[in-house]
């Protein structure tokens, strides 16, 4: 059965003054991507747990929390306890990836592991069996609106082979520069979940943009 591509609009590209309205504009999405930045692991500062809880209360779709923070072992379980569907931590920030995956799952969410563009997948294959999601960053984390780094698709292809072979059970997710020009190559490489920021929130009709991206990815998967 062909993979069914899923779209996760990124709130980083939304109007922060109207977050309740902005969540409603993407009601047809599969997940809603929520970027947490602490101004330490990455230079920028964005949302935290209180904002996540407020968005969770009004969001028509499940939250996909991407923690670009130091000390994720301390903070990640709280996002799961607050109701996130998926909580992703960065491999580069974790001292105990298996432990944080266990704690996220115990708190009721899926556990994700994110890799920066320059971080080799092979260095983390041994712990991926403890995670539900692999988030491949196709831009450097910390800023929206960057250009897609196609070299990361090598990691996607490797992960897809392992999933298809039954060696891993993972949602393969990609984040960064996903739009109408890049989604097909990402889909062909093996991505399941596509994070899209300006390609969705910059459109006149975000729900139509989601449908168009989903269909583009599905067509690429079908070949």
UniProtKB/TrEMBL annotation:
Pathway involvement of the protein, from the record: Carbohydrate degradation
Cofactor(s) this protein cannot do without: Co(2+); a divalent metal cation; Zn(2+); Fe(2+)
CDD domains listed in its UniProt record: RPE
Keyword Ribonucleoprotein among UniProt keywords: no
Gene Ontology MF terms: D-ribulose-phosphate 3-epimerase activity; metal ion binding
EC number per UniProt: 5.1.3.1
Name of protein: Ribulose-phosphate 3-epimerase
Species this chain originates from: Blastococcus haudaquaticus
